[in-house]
Amino acid sequence: MSTAQWEVGRGSSQGKKGNDQVHSWTLLTSHALDTVWRLAKGSVLLAVSFLVAALCYFRRLHVRLGHRLKWWIGYLQRKFKRNLSVEAEVDLLGYCAREWKGETPRAKLMRKAYEELFWRRHIKCVRQVKRDKYDALRSVLFQIFSQGLSFPSWMKEKDIVKLPEKLLFSQGCNWIQQYSFGPEKYTGSHVFGKLRKCVELLKTQWIDFSAIKDYHKRGSMCNILFSDAILEYKLYEALKFIMLYQVTEVYEQMKMKKVIPSLFRLLFSRETSADPLSFMMNHLNSVGDTCGLEQIDMFILGYALEVKIKVFRLFKFNSRDFEVCYPEEPLRDWPEISLLTEDDLHYHIPIF
Asked: Are 112 and 317 in contact (CB under 8 A)?
């Protein structure tokens, strides 16, 4: 072999070896990149899967929390509304349209009655009052407080907090121990302390409200007071007792042959209320429990609180009994408050 041929063969061998080395490095690099890519791809897929799972979890959590939040908001709204015993003002005719749809004779009568209140009596709004056995007392007391009416004159002359004991010790009315606080029945010797606390609360609240000159502030205070069922309960029982006290006082005057208001003569002419005890047992003890106030009770309430209670009786539309006052002939120039009723069972507050 010549030198030239050997050199050519050596060059070819070295070129082949170099190509093999390049190819080996290429394969190694490619293999390394494939390995890195597989690892990276697995990590990326794992990360993406985790991110998608996390997003799905948080989305479900958000939906679940949203539903739970809506439930709690609804619950609190329902609870607040249930405790707010005198609702905010609503348009009178709008309220009528919602409550009295259809073409029944009663629905037509109610729509005409509401139109009468709106166009001729200038009543623009109504405040709905919680429907229970205290709603007549609630409707009257809310207006007394919201209007800031003065304390009755006879209550200024006497310490009404001491009236329960006065009936027992001065007038010998030991039967008052059978007084019932609405659904709470016979309380025995504890009745005096319980009544005293109720009457004391009524006196304090009445004085406080009458001292507030700002109308909006009185309204805010009323919303607070008439959202507290426990305080309301005590105030209404105090009003019931005040009615009982007035009946007892007038009964004593009648026994002494003194002239008494005609409404009390009517009261004592009934077998079920011939005296204060029968009035309490057969009528007053049921108020707040199984029944509300009857018409004659409304007379006594107006007399005891020294207010003229005007009531629009919508079911009596187009009759002389559509508008009545309790009492019919107030003894003095007493302030006037208004109520409306669709059935003499439940009362609402008209806003002029």
From this structure: yes
Helix/strand/coil for 310: strand
Q: How many other C-beta atoms lie within 10 A of the C-beta of residue 283?
A: 22
Least confident piece of the model among 82-86, 179-183, 204-208: 82-86
What the block records as the tokens of 241 is: 């007792």
The whole-model pTM stands at 0.76
C-alpha pair distances (Å), 325 with each of 12, 94, 200, 286, 307? 130, 27, 29, 24, 10
Q: Does pLDDT of 210 surpass 50? A: yes
**pLDDT at position 104 over 70:** yes
Helix axes 135-146, 229-255, angle to 10 degrees: 100
Q: Give CA angle at 209 (332, 137), nearest 5°.
A: 65
- DSSP assignment, residue 184? B
Residue written as token pair 């005590």: 234
Phi then psi dihedrals of residue 129, to 5 deg: -110, 140
